[in-house]
């Protein structure tokens, strides 16, 4: 049977505000347990939440970037359930009246670009963390994360394959990071994803029974988890078994999904509007203000790179995948004025070195200025492209400027025509056999002579000049012989 | 007359004149407490040591001419407002050893105004009750008849004022918890407009209804307390940035030409005849003050109790979820796992009435019932608010009985929650509508029990309430009695 996969994703993104959503505690990750906690986020008796306006503004940026309609009045609601990491016994979230609804983003698929709907974006507070003691029958609660602001981005079930799901997540992730509202760190839980997945015979309108997938903490795991789950569901259907609507956890080590204990998911959250908070009123002026302050989004940046810098769409895609990388590239271009050459160096040597060291562009020892200088030195003929390979490796390893390296290692290109002509003549003289063969029609041996000249000059000879001189002198020999 | 018998304004004058010291006042109050507290039980905890130290500090200030609105005045705090470093129990086993690391904003304001805190007053557990019988620390008795309840939930705050165990007190009012005990104990009690007095540090019962307010010996003292308590608080999102007038200016003004609205729905069968008679006499007095009486209608009155007993428990079921034994407060011993710890802690930590309301509220919010209960109640609540908006277009203030009966016997209604709930029948509407209300004494039953009358006004019209109440207080032929203790 031919099945169609239907996937909808729910993404939780931690917002990069300095303080929590309803109190003034720090949001910093990694502090000593319960050191970023106060009576408000500890849920002590009689304390009250006061909304951090920055949270609304950050959430509005995401809403605008994903073409959502922002509700002029949105309302915080209580989601009631008991768990030790939830101090108040309820999570403050949004329910009936979320911040924003009805948006979309574009993703690239094998068959071109496709629109994936965003159902809603709402604000909420994060819960704390349980730390289980392996040696004692005890658990500890760290409430540093309690009250850290989140947005939940609920996607429409528009995704049709695990690859599309991963692509959708990468695009969402990219937008969040570009907007400076989320650090996107999946390992620390700043960007988390749950998936709803079902299958149906191709052509059928109704959705199949879906399962919810949790615990996938990388793009790759999301794709693997979904692939496994799709196969599992197909197997069940093909064998006449029923798919149970349930929550399943991805087990990365085993590469399988397992059902969560049903007790843990049987919740009636008893949502109701939080009487401690007033509706958030968002007027047009506020929206306009946020819109005016929006940074350039990845899609727009890609298009601008192609148009303004005349680089291939592929290059633009690679360079804009990381906002910092795009910024680095633009700095190099501004300083050297050679967009395509700059893109080759950034995407080539620089990214190769960084990938090898698992470093981000922020940690790159080669400054944009140094790279631009090096490109300038090639352009003006001070060093050859080949020598530049050696120079940039040194720049990356030591953080020194190209000028310093060239000076110290004496790598300046030999462009003295008289000196080079002597070397070329000497090489020709020294290889009479090859010369004879060359003249006998083995034109490939031209490269041999180039190589010998470069070897004799330790690669410092200007390759263009070597070419020209060789051509000239070989032709001259030919002419002399003809006369003879 | 002894110092503990005076009002705030009378003592202020004595302090200003150098007649008495703060220490003398505090000593007088604590000697009164020594004499009567054993019979009444107004307090869960007395703060004598702290109070004496504050009084000594107040006297130092007075010497330097530093006299604040409440300098040297002994004030009782309902044990629902958080006091830094002082246990705050909310009348519950769940919090019987809880010590907050912060003060309620109201406490901060009173302290800044020079108040001397006498102690933490007894109350129904988590303010759920109308008789102060549900307190984990035992009931409070009515100073006018020790066999009777003082009303609730701010019962201790009312008896402490009535029995001169303090000069004034604060309570909290979710459905009448200030006004009803004030009426049953013969003192003045005001529930301000929702958003007028900060709720920060007030342990929540029903967040959309709760409001802190004063209980005092007369209307002028009520105005003095409101001057201190009212105002915007950035720590509370529902606090309102409305201008705070000098409430004292309304005291002593006449109400000539005012229209007093009498809602026909509040004069129903089942009201105690002596209460009816006292209220009828009040209406006559108000007329003699130069006001005219207009009959008005508040057509959705009959739904008030039902709406209240959905919304208040629903919010309470969520507000009280935090008492889980994990971080603070009571935790049951010997639980084998998490779910058992929750269950045992909450079973043993909460009393019967609190559990009843948590269950009602949980049910009302449950999937499948939300629309029929909470959703519908919220809609009717909006209609109740509209009733008042329309009424206040026709009159300045509304006058009603505060309670349907005088104080009932201890134990009389504990087995009949529904009867108990009906004792708030006239006070609940103000909380649902968010409007202010005041109860002032308007006479006594033949058996010598106090009766109260309630004035209601539009949002942020506390000034009108004080003006009406003070005009009535001045001209009423209500005899000044003291409980025979
Ligand atoms: Zn905090």
Describe what is shown at a glance.
Chain A is an alpha+beta fold and 484 residues long.
Write the layout of secondary structure elements.
The complex is a heterodimer of chains A (484) and B (485).
Chain A (H helix, E strand, L loop, with lengths): L2 E12 L38 H13 L3 E2 L2 E2 L1 E5 L9 E5 L5 E10 L2 E14 L3 E4 L6 E4 L6 E7 L6 H17 L12 E11 L9 E4 L4 H20 L8 E5 L4 E4 L2 H4 L6 E2 L6 E2 L2 H9 L5 H12 L3 H8 L2 H14 L2 H19 L10 H12 L5 H14 L3 H8 L7 H14 L1 H8 L5 H12 L6 H21 L1
Parallel strand pairs in A: 12-13
Antiparallel strand pairs in A: 1-10, 1-11, 2-6, 3-16, 4-5, 4-15, 6-7, 7-10, 8-9, 11-12, 13-14
Helix pairs in contact in A: 2-3, 6-7, 8-9, 8-10, 10-11, 13-15, 13-16, 15-16
Chain B lengths: L7 H9 L5 H19 L2 E4 L1 H16 L10 E5 L26 H8 L3 E6 L33 H8 L5 E5 L6 H7 L2 E4 L20 E5 L2 H11 L29 E5 L9 H16 L3 E5 L7 H16 L18 H12 L2 H14 L5 H22 L4 E5 L15 H6 L5 H6 L3 E8 L5 E7 L5 H14 L10
The complex binds zinc ion.
Zinc ion (ZN) binds next to loops of chain A.
Considering the chains and any ligands shown, give keywords for the structure:
heterodimer, A: 484 residues, alpha+beta, Arc Repressor Mutant, subunit A, 3 domains, 9-stranded mixed β-sheet, 3-stranded antiparallel β-sheet, 16 helices, B: 485 residues, alpha/beta, Amidase signature (AS) enzymes, 11-stranded mixed β-sheet, 15 helices, 38% helix, binds zinc ion
The poorly predicted ranges of chain B are none
Radius of gyration of chain B in whole Å, from Cα?
A: 21 Å
Percent helix among the residues of chain B? 25-40%
User: How many H/I helical runs of chain A?
Assistant: 16
General form of chain A: elongated
Largest beta-sheet details of chain B? 11 strands, mixed
Number of helices of chain B: 15
Helicity of chain A, as a percent range: 40-55%
Strand order of the largest sheet of chain A: 2-6-7-10-1-11-12-13-14
Main structural class of chain A: alpha+beta
